[in-house]
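User: Last request for today: this protein with manganese (II) ion, please.
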Amino acid sequence: MVVVMTPDATDADIAHVVEKVEGVGGSAFVSKGVVRTIIGLVGDIDRFHGLNLRALPGVADVYRISDPFKMVSRQHHPERSTVWVGRDGHRVPIGPDSFTFIAGPCAVESKQQTIEAVEMAKAAGASIMRGGAFKPRTSPYAFQGLGVAGLEILSEVRDLTGLPVVTEVVDPKDVAVVAEHADMLQIGTRNMQNFGLLQAVGQSGKPVLLKRGMTATIEEWLMAAEYIAQRGNLDVVLCERGIRTFEPATRNTLDISAVPVVQAKSHLPIIVDPSHAAGIKELVVPLSRASIAVGADGVIVDVHANPEEALCDGPQALLGNELRALAQAVRQLPPAVGRVDARTLAHG
Ligand code: PEP
Ligand code: MN
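Assistant: Here's the final one, the structure of the complex with manganese (II) ion:
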């Protein structure tokens, strides 16, 4: 931390700051300039917070230099991490060397609909399947998902297709049953700061896909990841899914710069959800291309065999020409940015 003194701060004010810092076991390095004095602090930042330095006489400002998140920070872990998703001799990587294509229906509606969507996804090159059994809907009257019956369908479709499953959990009491059926637990945008839920998935023993809260800053998002890490689970993949802005042309505004910003701050992998960002299928392919180019570790995309009949998010689901264009993009573009298809690295 750095304490900046006001131009009229006295020697006594400076000595007072030094005394406070040393009083909690820290060291203070005073640097006197022509106009201002700054004091560099070394030691336990949490103890410095307790001193309320900003309120001391002669103090103009206090700046934090290191990040407030620790376990997910790249400052303490310079190598970027790879998270492995799957089980029983088949694990798929999400990390800096590969590109992971995740696809499937927004919601599990029936066994047939899930099989059709996942077969389409697999044929297009997906290595992990998605599908919601517990759906966090804005309206209490909207389809809420099939719950445990949906999880059972996901397990069956995994057995049929061999693709590991990522699915959302919305309630701490469901973490155990979701973990039984899923290979990766998704925390949705609406629950990014549901701290009890974050702690519960932190103790689940399963990798976690942590979506960015629709109004969360990158720092708040990484602090949410820290909650999971702090419970002993560092297998966290971040997912940029668009944020709320003044622009109504898209459902959310995809914050593409979040990808390199997060990669500079955190060692955790980061993927992009262009479907939930855009809300319209025509934008999914261009935003996927942009995600690959900017350096994302993967994308997660909605597909549906009959989007006009989908019970959730039909307008953003791909099939036909758009899905073919996406398959081509995820095949051709990652090698241009030095990544291999995650399927080629998958192993037990
Ligand atoms: C989803 O992926 O099914 C979903 C609900 O996404 P989000 O939480 O980003 O809205
Ligand atoms: Mn959805």
